[in-house]
Amino acid sequence: MDQSVCSGRGHVSVLSCFPPSVARDVAVAVVKPLRAGLRNPDTRSLLHTDSQVKWTMEVLCYGLTLPLDGDTVQLCVDVYTDWLMALVSPRDSFPPPISREPNLYTQKILRHLDSLFLSRSEQASPVYLSLCQQVLLAVQSLARESAVMSGDTWETLLHFLLRINHNMLAPPTTTDVLEQLSHLSMAVLFEVWLLSCSRCFPSHSLWQTARQMLSSWRHQPAVVEQWSRVMAALTSRLLVLSFGPSFPHLKVPDEDASLVPADMDDQRVPQTWFRFLHLLSNPVDLSRPVVAGSTPSFPEEAMRGGGRLPNIFFRAMKGVGTMVDAFLGVTVVNKESTEQQLPSTGVTPRIHFRDRLPSLGVGVARSPFKDRLPPYGISRPRSGSAPPIPVNILSVPSTPPSTTSTLHNTRLKPVNVSKATSKPPMTSSSPHHWKSSTHPPLSSHRPPPSPLRCNVDSLLHLFGGWLFDAALIHRDSVGDVTVMSERWAAGRAEACGMLCRIFSCKKTAEDILSVYLSRFYLVLLRGIQVSEEACPPVLASILMNSTCLFCCDLRGVNLLFPCFLFAVESVLLDRELLRFKSFVRPVDLRRASILVLLSLLPLPLQLGSVQSEVLLDGKFSGDDVTAGNFLSLKPRLRSILIGALQMETDTTNTQILLAAMLNLIQDSALFEAAGQTQQLPGFQQTDSWQDGASRPISTGATRGTSGPSGTREPSGTSGTRGQSGLSGPSGTSGTRGHSGTRGPSGHSGTSGTRGPSGPSGPSGTSGASGTSGTGIRSAEILWVQLVRLLTQRLMAQWRNDSAVCLSALEILGGLAKVEVSVEESESRRALSSVCSYIVFLCSRPPPLHSRDLHSIIVAAFYCLNVWLTQHPAVLDHQECLLEVLEIVELGISGSKSGKEQEVRCKEEKELNPSSLRVKEAAEATLNCVMQVSGAFPLLGDQLDEDALIGCSTLSDTSVKKFRYFVVGSSVILAMLERLPGPGEPREPREPGEPGEPGPKPGEAAKCPSLTVLIRGASGRHSWTLQHQLQPRDGRTATQQTPIPEQRGVAQEDSGIQCGVKHQLFPANMDRVSLVKADLSIPLLDDIVTDKVQQQLQRLQAALKTQRLVEAQPQASGRSVVMTICRPPPPINSFQTARLFLSHLGLLTPETLKSPGSVPPQLLSLDSSLPGFSDDLKRLDELPSRNCDFASIFYMRAGQRTAAEILRNVESSCSVPSYFLDFLSSLGWPVEAWRRQRGGVNISSEFHAVLGDSGGGVFDGERFVLMYADGLTEITFIVPSSSHTAEWLKSREEAEPPTSQQSNTELSQDSAPPPTRSPVEDMKSFRGSESKLLIVWVERFEDIESFPQTELLSETQTHAGTSNVQLIFIHPLKTGLYRICFRGNGTSKFSLVVPLVNGSVVSKRSLGFLVREMVINCCHRRRLESDSTLPSHVRRKQMINDIILRYHSRRSEPAFYTALFQDP
Description:
By secondary structure, the protein is α+β, with helices and mostly antiparallel strands. The chain contains 50 helices and 19 strands. It starts with a helix and ends with a helix.
C-alpha cells in the first residue's frame, strides 16, 4: 500500500514550527480579512502573486488544525471550498495565480484539507460534522461540474478521499458522529471514483491501493452498504449492455442510478464493474475477524467477538445476492427491512446525518459557500439498501411476472400466524362466518428467471468462490479452541440460498462442471442436516430456495432425495416451528417444504430399486439411508403427506397438499395395477389401517372390471327388465347393466385412470419391479385414509374456508375415479359424508349465505354426481339411495320431508331453495340418479328419427311418422309404432337372442313393437319395446305361442255323442261336512234386504224370459247348424303407443286435465307445424353434459413464432414418441363430422388415424381427441398450420356428412359418443371468453417466450390474455414431467388442483391428471360466471319453448281418437 496515501498527514504548515499561541494569532489575523472577499464576489482578491498565495495557504493549512471553539476553522474551510470552485466557474474574486493554474493550486488545497480530518477531541461536535460535510460537498461538486480537471488533479482528489476515509474507517470502533459521517464520505468516494472512471480512468496502482485500503475498512457498515449500492447501479447498467434491452432490467432508485455517469463509455462499464466487484477482496474474510481488520488494535477487538461483523457479513452477502438475482433476470421485491429479519442481531437502523442535523441545532446556513451550492442530492444510505434474506421470498404476495427487477425500501408488517395446538380445533355451536380465501394464489413460488440469463458456470466463475466459502463457514477459530458459532448463520444462509437459486436456474440443455456440482452437493449435505448441530437459518434458506431443485435435471441430484425427505419431514411435522419463527414466517417455510415434497413424490416409484449411496457418514437423524432403495422410502413419504395435511392451517398450503395426495394415490394405483405391487419393508398391515378402516379386498369391487375388449363388465348379477309385457331397451334384451366406456388404451374409460403401462418416461425407464401376487397395495390404504380425512375435515376445520373446501371436493371427486379395490362400505361412507356436508352448508343461517357458499354447495353436488357415476352400486342400498334423494329434495325445495311430522307431496310443497344455482345443481343430481340407479343406458344415445326410419336428414316428412307427447312438462316422447310384416309370426324371438336378430332401423318388426325417443333434460335416449303374450321369465329360448292348425268342415254326426250333465260343483260336495269357517260367509237369504229382494225378483224374471226365448227354436222344430270354432285372422293394426301410455298410467281423465295453472301431465305435440323438426334438431345439439375444450401445442427448443409451433405437429418426425403417447392417453380419435366412433380397438385406431402426422390430424377439421364420461365431455384439438384457416368453417360451409356416416351401426362396446358435432362445439369454444391451452415445451425456459397472443390471433381465437389458462408440460431426463400452470391470478379460486405449479408427475398418471385439471379449470370458470347455465337447464328451457310453440290444442275426445289412428 502506498504509505503516502495512508499516512496520517497530507501536508504540514510552516506555522507549526512556531509556538501555538503565535501561530494561532497569525492564523486569526490572516483569515479575517479574507472573509470580506467571500461575501462579495465582485471585490478583487488581496493576493496577487504566487508567493502571497502560497504563504496564505500555509496559514490556512495551520488554521484547519486549530480547535473548534472559534470561527477560524470555519473561515479556513470557507476560503478553501471557495477557491476549489476555480476549476468549475472562475471569478474575479479568486487570486490571479489560482485562476491561472487552478489544477496546481487545487491539488495543494486538497493536501491541506487533510488536516481537517485528522483525529481530534472535538470529533463528536456537530460543528465538526458540519465542516466535514461542507468539504465533502465541495469536493463532490468539483468532480461533477469541472470540465478542465487534469489527470494529476483527479489522482490527487482520489488520494485525498482515500486518506480521509482511512482516517475515519480504519479504527475498529468509531463514534456515532463519525459513523454517520462515514456514510457520506464513502458515498462521495465512490461517486467521484465513478466520475473518474468516465473521464480519467484511474491507474492500476491506484486501483490496487483502493482495494487494499477498502479491505481494511470492511468492518465498517458504511463501506459494505455503499459498496452494495454502487454495485447494484453498475450491474443495472451492465445488464443492458451485456444482454440487451429485452433482458429484465434491475431497477434501482434514481439517486443510485445517477451514480454511474450517463456518458461513461460502454467499454469502460464492464471494466469498472469488475474492478469495483473486487474492491472488497473476498467478502467472506469478514467472517474471519483476524483477516478483516489491519490496524494493530483490531485483532484485540476481533478476539472479543468481532462486534458487528456477523451483520456486516450478512449485508455483504446480500449485496452479492442482488447481483446474482439480477444476472438471473429474477424479479426481486424487497418487502421487509433487514432489521425485521434479524431481530436477534441487535443492530439498529442507521439514519443519515442529514436527517439528524436539524435536531443537533447546527446552523448550516452560516457558510456563504453553502448558500451558493445547489442541492446535490446526496442520498442517505438506506437501512434496507441490501435486499432481505431470501428465506422470506414467499412472504410477499405473488404478482404476475414482469420484465423489471425492482429493489424497494418498503416495510411489511409482520404477519400473525395462528398457532395450532396439539388437538384439532373444536367446532362450536355458534355460527361461523363464511370467508373467502385472502391468500394470494400460488402462481409461482418465486418469479421465473429470464430465458436470456447467463449459464450457471458463468455465474459461478464470478461468485462461486465467495459463495462456496461462505456457505461452508461454520466454525470460529479462537486460539486452539474450535467452537460452533451461530453468529454467522445469516450470511451463511444467504450464501446457501444464492447457490440453490443459481443451480435451480439451470437451463434444460446446459452442462455444469462436476467440480461445482460436487461442492454444491456438499453444501446441501451440510446445510440440511436435522441433527442437533443443524443450523435452522441455513436449513430454512435451503428449503426456501430449493423448490425447483429436483425439477431441473441436475446430475446426481436425486441421490439427495433421502436427505431432503428428512429435512422436509422435520419442518412439516413440527406444528410450532419455534426454531424458525425468529427469521422466517412459518407459513412460508412450510409452503416451500411442501413444494419440495411435491417434486419428490414420483421419485420412489420412478427410481424404484436404485440403491441409495453413502451420504455424509451414512446417517441422518438416526436413520441409515443406505439400508434400502428409493422404494423403501415411500411409506415415509406417505406418512409425511398425511401428517402435514393434518397439521396444516394455511389455505394455499392445504390446497397444494391435497393436489399432492391425488397425484401420489393415482400414481401408486396405476403402478400396482400394472403388476408392480409394492412390498413395503417392515410394513405392519394392522398399524396402517387407522380409525378402523376396512382392509382392501381383491374381489367384490364396487365397479366392474375391464373386459378383454375394453368394456366394463356389469357389476353384480344381470337382472331382467320388462314390465307389462314390454321388452327392454333396443339391443340389450332387457338385461340390466352399465354401458361401459373404453378408455384411451383399451381400459375402462369411465374412470379414465388407466393409461399406458409401458415405459414410464421418454427414456423408457420403468418403475421398480415387484410381484403382482404378494405385498400390500399401498394405494388402497392411502385411498381410504385420505377419503376419511377429507370427509372429516370438510365438516370440521375446513368448513369455513371456501378455497380449501372447493379443492377438497375436487380431490374427492378425483379419488372417486381412481381404480382401487376397497370395500363398498367405504364408498357409501364417502357418499354419506358428502351428503352430510351439503346438509350442513344448506342449514347455515341466512345472513351467512353468499355466492361463495352457494358455489361450494354446487361443487358438492357435482362431487356427489361423480361418486354416483363412478360407483353406481352404492345406490343398490336402500339407505344410501334414500339419503341421496333427501339431499336432492333439500336442494330443490329447501327442506327434507323426512324431517317433517307429516309427509307432503311435491305438488303441495312450497319451494324455497337456497338459491337458483343450488336448485339447478340438485336437479342435475336427480338426473344422475335416474341415469345410474338400475337404469340403462348410462349415457346419451345417438339414434334419432333419421336413423330409425332410414332418412338422411331430419325433416318434416320424417317426424310425421312419429307421435309426440310431453310428460310432466319436461320430457318429450317421440313414438314410432312398428307393425309385424305380412305372414310373420306375432311372437318372434327377442332381439339379441340366438337365432334371429332384432329389428333394424327402417325395417318392419316381426311382432308389435314401439320405439321411443326420450328427450329430456338429461339427454336423448332410445328404447325399443315389444308386445309379448307371455312374461320373459316363463319362456325358454325355443318356446313359441301355439296357433291352431286350419282344418276342414266338421261332420255333425261324426264321433260318439255322449250326454254330459254339467254341474257347478263336484258331485260329492254335499257329503263334505261344514266347519265354522264355512259359516263365516252368510247365506244370501240371510242378508237380503227389501231393496235387494226386488232386484233379485227382477233378475229371476229376466232369466225366465231368456229361457223361454232360447227354447223357442226347439219348440218350432227348426234345426240348429253348429259351426267349428276357428281362430280369427291375425290382427295387423296395433296401437302400441296407446298400450305404452296406458301401462304408464297416463291415459286417465286426470292426466289430461290441467289443474289450475299447472299444465296437464300428458300433452301431445303437433309435429305438422312448420319449424318443428328444426327445433328438435336444435334441442339435440344442446349438450347433456359439460363440454370442455383444450388446445394442445408442441413447442420445440428455441421456437418463438406461432408459425413454427403450428408446423411441429404436421409430421411425426418433428415430435418425440412420448408426446404421441401423451395424446393417446387423453382420449380417443373421433372424426370431426361423425357423431360417434366405430367399434374398433382404440389403441390400433389411434395409430391408424395418426399415420405420419405428429398430432396435427386432430386439428378439429379432420379428427379430434375426445374423452367422455357420465358428466363431462372433453374435446382436445391439436392446431396445425395446414388447417388453421379451416377452423372457422361452419357446418353449413363445409361438406356435410353422408348418410352412411350418419347411420353407423351401433356397437354395444362403443365409447360414449359426443352429444353434438365436435365442430359445432369448437365454434362455440372459439367464441368463448376463456381458453385453456396445453403446451408441451422441450426447454423449460421457453415458457417465458411462448407466443400466446400470436397463437390466439393465428388460430382466430379472440380472448384476453387474462382469461387464458396455460398448462405447460416439460419432460425431464428421469422420465418424469414437470408442470407449470399459468392461470388467472385475479380470481379468488385461481389455485386449481391437481396440477399446481411445480408439480412433477409420472407418465402413468400424466393423462389422468391433465384431464382432471381441464375438468376442474372449466368447472371453476362455470362457478364464477353468472351467464353460464348448466346443460340440463338449457335443455329444459328449450323443451319449454317447444311445448309453448307446438302444443296440440285438440279436445279430449279428439286426443283419444287420434290414439286409435295411424299417425
